[in-house]
Specification:
Layout (H helix, E strand, L loop, with lengths): L1 H71 L1
């Protein structure tokens, strides 16, 4: 009786351990994917920020031109 119980318990523990390993691997994969997405979004955000800075600089230059023209005009 005791030996069979131990074997049964060992089997249950082994199954649970395998399940945990499987979940762990799945989570690692998901984390990796998430990090890739995060990196991609960071790059896109950086690009957008540079673009926005360029637009602001351009706008300021135009504004400065208008001011100069107003003074002249």
């Amino acid at each position: 009786g005791q030996t069979e119980n131990n074997q049964e318990l060992s089997k249950v523990w082994e199954e649970r351990e395998n399940q945990l390993i499987e979940w762990n691997d799945k989570l690692k994969d998901e984390l990796e994917q998430t990090m890739l997405i995060k990196d991609d979004l960071s790059r896109k955000l950086e690009k957008m920020n540079r673009h926005l800075d360029d637009c602001c600089d351009s706008f300021r230059r135009e504004e400065e031109k208008w001011r100069q023209q107003e003074k002249v005009g």
